[in-house]
Design the sequence.
């Protein structure tokens, strides 16, 4: 019987995840990565797997992320040279677009200002502009970023995009690479980060980038925690260089109770909730690749390890 090992602390409950995998793959034995049988596992299903995982999982032929991101796998220098797969799902992109659309409206229509004013019992209308007067930039125009850029475009916003390649998207002005970065940033009122975590994107949301935005710009961060320098964010908010931030992902999750971002008046903290795929949908994608692995069919959603995403 082929063995599948579940490694790490999942966003969902590990137990229900393993149970659903067992149900979907009745011919497989599903074990925890610390189980002795995991040494025979051909597949590892991972999320933030603990150090030392790969020393035990010596027979692995495919490593599968339970999420869209694979940084937790590629970060580990002991990861064996096997295909790394991720999940890609239109509904995940739709969920993310809903989240970002809400955040964009929140800033565009001044709900953040109204909420702050309410605490002081101040009756004052924020600016009332049409979406077309607001410029929103999306960093990362991949499977999710491209979908949320077109959703914002269809809602009437003036949308700009930034990716490595600068691949064009209808109705969105897309800039590419380092050469296009300055032009991309300079006109934005709202910046959305939808980048994968790689060596190049670690710390990208920091002092230097904030200084290139229009004063008072807002940030919506739903990529990965280590992309954001949290100290630089607080400094930029306190100086007024940034007018507010919605932050969904953090260096440490769950965000520790003592963290200053919890109480910052210009920050809305959300608990890595921007887009969460239901377990059965994730399980289906993993199962499909397990079946392909056994029948030597090409795997789906394989990431390019050299690119880091
Ligand atoms: P993709 O791999 O499909 O797209 C990545 C995009 O980022 C591409 O457009 C790529 O450019 C661009 N990119 C990568 N590196 C750079 C760089 N150095 N400079 C400029 N652009 C770059 O990823 P997804 O859209 O599927 O997901 C993105 C990330 O979103 C995930 O890795 C994950 O971290 C995060 N995520 C967060 C969730 C949440 O709930 N908060 C939920 C799901 C995902 P190019 O097009 O040229 O290749
Ligand atoms: C993901 C995530 O990568 O939830 O899927 O962050």
Sequence:
């Amino acid at each position: 019987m082929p063995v599948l090992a579940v490694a790490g602390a999942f966003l969902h409950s590990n137990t229900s995840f393993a149970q659903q995998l067992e149900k979907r793959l009745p011919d497989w034995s599903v074990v925890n990565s610390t189980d002795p049988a995991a040494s025979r596992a051909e597949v590892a299903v991972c999320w933030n797997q603990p150090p030392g995982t790969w020393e035990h999982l010596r027979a692995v032929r495919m490593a599968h992320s339970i999420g869209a991101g694979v940084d937790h796998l590629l970060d580990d220098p002991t990861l064996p040279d096997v295909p790394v797969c991720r999940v890609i799902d239109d509904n995940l992109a739709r969920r993310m677009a809903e989240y970002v659309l809400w955040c964009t409206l929140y800033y565009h229509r001044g709900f953040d200002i109204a909420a702050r004013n309410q605490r002081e019992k101040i009756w004052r209308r924020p600016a009332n502009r049409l979406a077309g007067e607001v410029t929103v930039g999306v960093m990362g125009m991949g499977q999710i970023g491209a979908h949320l850029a077109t959703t914002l475009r269809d809602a009437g916003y003036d949308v700009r995009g930034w990716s490595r390649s600068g691949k064009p998207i209808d109705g969105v002005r897309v800039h590419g690479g380092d050469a296009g970065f300055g032009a991309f940033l300079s006109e934005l009122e709202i910046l959305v980060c939808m980048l994968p975590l790689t060596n190049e994107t670690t710390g990208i949301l920091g002092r230097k980038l904030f200084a290139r935005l229009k004063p008072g710009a807002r940030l919506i961060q739903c990529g990965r925690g280590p992309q954001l320098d949290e100290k630089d964010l607080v400094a930029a908010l306190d100086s007024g260089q940034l007018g507010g931030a919605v932050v969904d992902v953090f260096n440490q999750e769950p965000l520790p109770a003592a963290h200053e971002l919890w109480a910052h008046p210009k920050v809305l903290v959300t608990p890595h909730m921007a887009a969460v795929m239901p377990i059965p949908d994730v399980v289906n994608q993993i199962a499909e690749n397990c079946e392909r692995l056994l029948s030597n069919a090409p795997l789906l959603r394989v990431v390019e390890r050299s690119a880091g995403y």
